[in-house]
Amino acid sequence: MKDIWVVDDDQSIRFVLERALAREQFAVRSFSNARDVLGALADDEPQVLVSDIRMPGGSGLDLLAKIKAQHPGLPVIVMTAYSDLDSAVSAFQGGAFEYLAKPFDVPKAVELIRRAVEESLREAVAVDRLAETPEILGQAPAMQDLFRAIGRLSQSQVTVLVTGESGSGKELVAQALHKHSPRANGPFVAINTAAIPKDLLESELFGHERGAFTGAQTMRRGRFEQAEGGTLFLDEIGDMPFDLQTRLLRVLSDGQFYRVGGHQPLKANVRVIAATHQNLEQRVRDGAFREDLFHRLNVIRLRLPPLRERRDDIALLTRQFLQKSAKELGVEAKRLSESAQARISAFDFPGNVRQLENLCHWLTVMAPTQVIEVKDLPPELTAAEAPAAVEPPAAARGGVEPSVPVVATPQSGAGWLADLEREARALLDAGAPEVWDTLTRRFEAQMIVTALSTTRGRRIEAAQRLGIGRNTITRKIQELGLDD
Predict the structure, then answer these.
(1) Could you tell me if residue 277 is inside a domain?
(2) Least C-beta-crowded within 10 Å: which of 316, 384, 444, 458?
(3) What is the pTM for the complete model shown?
(4) Residue 103, preceding peptide bond in cis (omega within 30° of 0)
């Protein structure tokens, strides 16, 4: 890890911070003015920069602006006297990690610097991941199963049906299947069958001959021809009109089709991937979907889980979308406090990944500071208290999926003890290993997550409320994987 840089013209401030940070095993490098810092940045870079505002030879805010231009990901903590607060807050909202008001409490200053260091290390890992971001992100077990299935299908050209709720990323799965298939060099053509009027959909899919209908002044190639040698993705296949289902079945069965108004059969050298958010079996029972087409499409079915079933992925996806939004808008990427991330991870996201991406774009535009707190989240996430059931991180579950949710805000002592009894009994009856360890880790993780949520991520205060030491909570967070 790199050094912490402290910039202040007051030698006593530099001395106090040097000693305090040294006791916490941090290496420190001190400067008395902004000019020397800018010179040092030509050859080196700190892990975190702590700078005073008012200094001879250049203000800390000017230094902040120059540093952010060269090193946008470097956390900068600005030290300011109480009389400077109003101007400082408005001036460094566009870049500073946090401010430290003078005179400050030394342990709190060290804790703030530690948070900045942890954030810097997390962001460095996140940036490395984003540099080689795959088409789909996911660490949850269900997503890993999906990745394995895509890998097994990599050399196959079989028809695939992708199911999942709206916004869960079904087209991304289709693109991944295409990218890793023998047809990867061919075109990938997508069409949403629910978004095109019924009387135009046939022409969109199969094309038409000149004069086939009023307005058809020229011959037009349809999506099947456009996807020749590649992959055709039929999204929301459950909404396809019944008569067009018959034509699609014929293409899948015979490999041939006719343009609208055409008499010459055309060969379809196309792999079809279909997707739907609907229950096709129920649509078949209701007479709205052809059973023979269903069986033709349902050769291989891949289920994409909703976001609420893969909560472990929400933090990773959030970082990616905040980085993406910042790049699109030409601004520095914002960061989430631990309490804000916990609230987002606990939300059910009925719109799934699409809704999370929209939320991150909204936060990039609307959140007032670089570090997003719970109060900065939109009303749908802040109107209600955190949900009663919050699934702990994977590391805290000990590898055993819970059959009963962990209760975060029990209504009574008897209630949560009864839940604990049911959970323990389920694990014991299932023959799960290390039940004591598993439940203890989950209990500790939930206590810490809840405490951090109530203190907006302030660890020292969370430790005090829980009645444990600050070193204990830091160690537990690391052991339980709550930093991830």
Answers:
(1) yes
(2) 384
(3) 0.54
(4) yes
